[in-house]
Amino acid sequence: MKRNKLTKRQKTYLTLSSILLAMAGFVGLLMGLALIFYVFEAFFMH
Q: What's the pTM?
């Protein structure tokens, strides 16, 4: 049973999940950078 065609709902779900994943990755990256900056400041500014 081969199904190449995605239904509209599946396509929407796929797009939505990929957008959410991208946003989560972006937020994670920002948080990581902020953490590094915070640690850097804590260690080197004193």
A: 0.60
